[in-house]
Amino acid sequence: MEKIKVLLVDDEKMISSGLKIILETYEDIEVIGTASNGEEALHACKNNKPHVVLMDIRMPKCDGVLGTKLIKEEFEDVKILILTTFNDVEYIHEALKYGASGYILKDSDYDSIYQGIKACVKGNVVVNPEVASKIISENVKYNNRNSMEEVKIKFDLGDKEIKVIKEIANGLSNKEIGEKLFLSEGTIKNNVSNILSKLALRDRTQLTIFAFKNNIAEQ
Question: What pLDDT sits at residue 1?
Answer without folding.
Answer: 62
